[in-house]
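During the second year of the project, the team shifted from modelling isolated chains to modelling whole assemblies. The rationale, set out in the original proposal, was that interfaces cannot be judged from single-chain predictions alone. As a representative example for this report, we include one of the complexes processed in the last quarter. Its constituent sequences, exactly as entered into the pipeline, are reproduced here:
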Amino acid sequence: MDRIPILKVGNILLVSIRVDMDDITVQNLHDDLCEDIVKKRAQGVLIDISSLDMVDSYIGHMLGTIASTSSILGAVTVVAGMRPAVALTMVELGLTLKNVKTALNIELGIVEINNLIQVQGAT
Amino acid sequence: MTELIDLRHVEDIVKARSTVRDHSQKLGFGLVDQTRIVTAASELARNTIEHGGGGFLQIMIIDNMNKVGINLVFEDRGKGIDNIELALSGGYSTGSGLGLGLKGSKQLMHDFEINSKHGTGTRVSVTRWKP
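Output from the structure prediction step:
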């Protein structure tokens, strides 16, 4: 069973998914992220999915769950780097990822997270 | 050419995906079509395991004079689907999923056929043809 590594860069937790995840690996990632947000006092979570060649309804559902749980714990989540073919297929499948913030790549993802943290701090 | 894959545990979904991906690649499907086929396979494999109590996937490569395609058959001996129309309408789920599996896979593939009887299991056959 694979465990996805979580890196801490400043106040952001950075996750780059580079394996084809089974359902248990996705569940573990969710649990590990929740623990790390609290333990490492992170304010943002950036999930790089540029290596993922598909997002099915389960993975899509879990990305939404991760964003919701992180938000309750006080961290913002951005999913970065989705491939165009994956985005197209997700929409055809009926998945919209409505409650998940996305960015074109990791770099723009970090910019987006810092913006979101600032907005959060201002309110 | 056909290949059989056992679908028993959720880990088998990954195996189903990678095998279907390999075949679609070899057949020369474009990137978007490969993604559609693999995503449909993932949805239907999860249905077979979670709702059908396990079963198998049969991958068949169709390559004759005028048509090239990939056919995926998912079969289980589970409790079957009581109301197929409702299950195909999307947003309906008896398990932990989102209910998108059947409706979504139908969208992603060209041909879609489902046979299910209460108590005897479910068989879903989907095909995507090369343009």
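Helices of chain A lie at 23-39, 57-72, 84-93, 106-122. Chain A touches chain B at residues 20-24, 53-58, 61, 83-86, 88-90, 92-95 (CB under 8 Å).
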